[in-house]
Amino acid sequence: MSKTYNSLIKEKSPYLLQHSTNPVNWEKWSEKILLKAKKEDKLIILSIGYSTCHWCHVMEKESFENIKIAEIMNKYFICIKVDREERPDIDSIYMDAIQSMGIQGGWPLNLFLTPNKKPFYGGTYFNKESWFKILINIIEAYKKHKDKIILSSNNFSKDLNRTHDEKYSTKNKFSISTLINEIKIKFDYKEGGISRSPKFPMPNLWKSLLFYSLENKDKEVYSHVIMTIDKISEGGIYDQIEGGFSRYSVDEKWIIPHFEKMLYDNGQLLDLYADIFKITKNEKYLHIINNTINWLKNNMTDKSGGFYSAIDADSEGEEGKYYIWKYHEIEKILGNLTAKACKIFKITKEGNWNNHNILLRDYKQKINSKKFNKITKKLLLERNKRIKPLIDNKIISSWNAITLIGLLNCYQATNDNKILELATKNAKFIKDKLITKSTINRVYKNKIGGFLDDYAYVIKSFIKYFETTQNFTYLNKARELIEETIKKFYCSKNKLFYYTSNTSEKLISRKIEIFDSVIPSSNSIMYYNLLFLGKIYDDTLYLNIYNNMNFKLEKYLNNYEFMSNWIHVNNLNKSQINEIIVNDPSNKKSIIDKINSKYIPNKILIHNKGNYDLDILNSQKINNKLSISLCRNKVCQLPLKKISELFKTIKYPILG
């Protein structure tokens, strides 16, 4: 019997295509279908998810593939599917709506809207029985109490349009010491991270706290950061045989992952582990970096140079099936290596999850690299025979830029040219394939315009690429893009940037994204970009916008966890940005590489060869001998003749 398809079969999104065979008459979000809802006075079911979401799969099988449920949905509702990764603007607005109803957010996100797109009820995952009852109840309520539903939806929409000052401002004076003391109370001093489960890696939080701890010589915070990244790398959340990190751990010990692997997590974690390796030079972190980059190259890299979005948690309809092991499987595969493997990876006959083993790592168990590689190679060869989880092959601008930043920091930390080759191919792909003139596309080969996070992260990645390679093409492109971002996204009244551009589709709310989550907020990344490009180009406009954002944010900086990147950038600036100018007519890349190999996140690094027109270089003299200038706040010290003198001058404890 041939399959029947709904209208989603015409789409490119893997998530929308997954639902193209449902008996539900799903439609893509579009002006045409929204006008149809108004014309027919039908309620809208808005269902938002993404292709690698486990509970999205479960609800699809239970409810959206059910003929009886589909008939009700098709008869009484306009049913719209949205891929949250393609349309984060829609997702963020309606996620806010759910939370304003007092419901915890997550995916799948299912809402009921009036014909004019206003939400009045919703939730996340519903089992089949609950979903059926909700459908019937809402149909009856709309018949009998339409006025009340309209009133309720209007109230929720008003709440969505309240200003951030109304919602979040505080009269408390910003105090970094108070925020640090508050975050310390939340530390899980036994298992690392924050005391809660599930546990997300939150790499930007630890990146921010790492710099704070070194700048302020706070050993307690530094030790907790190191313990956290060690616990993560020892747990099941890290793929011990192939590399790559899962999205979160279900338990507080990092043992049981939610098995999906997201590009943005891995990009940020590469960045964090590179920082730690710069500081410690511990080979353990180098192994994790190399393993994760190999996983990225082998599984997530398109031939074009772009990186795919995610790998599913499920295979063959079961969460984690691809990754877990029975004890007898290990015995059969490894033979006389079994005993050693069981010690290294904490494998037991009973298992640690549903009679299976999720591989962990015990670094106290010593093993030479040759034997370790033999064990992991055998296990990986066997695992590769299994049916693999689905890969979401969307190539998203902001997530690629996040990963590019991580790769560049890994190259700086390791000086491994293979990493730089991968990063350079991706940087060129972003510049040539995701950007048209000064306009960024959200997704490769898709006409969706970029959002603020796409612009912000691409700009930041190009700043990082310039710092690493001294290729001025990318610095100039970063400036071109920041000009476009100010023009399209900046709100002079609020002194912040809208998430959508002034040419984007008009939704029921135009959101300003402030709070950092698993991914730092787009405004906080712009805060960074404005500071660094403002100093490089001595641009008054950029620095004025930065200062206005800084003044505005004093009202919101009352929670370290959700403002971690804002506080990080603020701390970078307060520590004084080190403007390092290498005056050298030769093209000695090794000088730049040596400086970049040190942990100096509060730096601007320029190799002055005498042929660049930057105000920052005007006072610099070029002759046949190497000299290094160190400037802070437009005050320069006497030129230094050796790199070692520079490292002594920048007095970080880790530079000794």
Automatic annotation (TrEMBL):
Q: Which InterPro entries match?
A: 6-hairpin_glycosidase_sf, Ssp411, Ssp411-like_TRX, Thioredoxin-like_sf
| One Pfam family recorded for the sequence | Thioredox_DsbH
GO:BP terms for this protein? carbohydrate metabolic process
Domain Spermatogenesis-associated protein 20-like TRX, which positions?
Answer: 6-160
> This protein is called what?
Spermatogenesis-associated protein 20-like TRX domain-containing protein
The protein's organism comes out as: marine metagenome
